[in-house]
Amino acid sequence: MPTKRGLHLVTREEDHKVTTLELFFDLVFVYAITQTTQLMADHLTPLGIGQGVAMIAVLWWCWCAYAWLANTLHVDRGIAQLAMFAAMGTMFLVSLTIPEAFTDLPGGLYAPLMFVGCYFIVRLLHLTAYFGAARTDPELRKVVLKMFVGLLPSVALLTAAAFFSGWVQLGIWAVAMLADYVNVFRTRSSDWRLHQPGHFAERFGLIVIIALGESIVAIGIGISSYPMSWPITLAAVFGLTLASAMWWMYFAVVAHVSEHNLKRAEGVERVQIGTDTYTFLHLPLIAGIVLVALGLKKSLLYVSDTEHHSLSDGLHGTPIWALTGGLALYLIALSGLRRRNLGSWNVRRLVLAVALLAATPLLELVPAIVLVGVVALAAVGLVLVERRKIVSNPVLHDGSNHSPA
């Protein structure tokens, strides 16, 4: 039923689906992820990668906040719709300032402060809408106030970081986000509401698709300025194969098991699963995908740019570690999801993650096109092994017994 101020609450009984406004809202994050990938591509150093990962953590926090909100409110109705559009516009400004979030360019507004200001507004709009939804729910209102109190130190630290640079600035960012994340973790067993687990799981599945789409976009951007050739064609196919294998690893079983676990739980347990499985463990999952996209982008550039590179050139330093390390992080996060939902690790995925990291120095010696092929084939090999295990020992994808996820 709508409240007096036009906030329409989601009830336990209804079949709440993802709305077109939520999908429209996600388009801003598509651009934000693209901007973050480009930020790291322009600063291919450990510091640049650190800045990119910190940026992903900030963007993820914004997106998660509205995923939870849309599970509590009908965000496409009443005044909540206005809050969503306002947040979308402000988030677009956040995305525009990403290239200057750490280092301001000469002229114009001071972008680092603009970034923090817009980020604060996005978070404030979310908490305001949540506070309105909790008007008749004292316990939920109390936890929303805790969130606001915990947000203030984080924003203050990000504001201070705007006047520093380099590793000191990144360190302040890390402390700011850690404070915010710890505050949310401490409230995970309190009185948040998660009435529609199917809607919640679908939202996170869609953001994984968006991140995987960025890896495909990275392939296209890497070759867009160069004439097609057989090496480019082969490298592009390898890149798409890797993205497809990553899709299978998540959606074939992991997504089903996680959703089943969320649906079977109630009350505080459901909130804890929602926070642990989706809010926290999906962050390294998304970060891994973005790093793989960066590695693919640079690999395809090596194959395409024959003026500056030959086909025998290998990928070195930060770019290759982004590719192998990103995939390793993705595999570790997937295994962590199994540990949280089924109580045991996926050893095969952990072994491949370690093998990729150990083999990276050797992979620097092979051409970039071979590198992408080896990584793609390793991922496909894992998929085939796990798929064969599923076929030989069928399990329900609803997570009712231990699956290869």
Automatic annotation (TrEMBL):
Keywords of this entry: Membrane, Transmembrane, Transmembrane helix
Entry annotated with the keyword Membrane: yes
Transmembrane feature ranges: 21-41, 47-70, 82-102, 108-131, 143-161, 167-184, 204-226, 232-257, 278-296, 316-334, 346-363
Taxonomy, superkingdom: Bacteria
Membrane recorded as keyword: yes
Family annotation (PANTHER family): BLL5714 PROTEIN
Name under which the protein is recorded: Low temperature requirement protein A
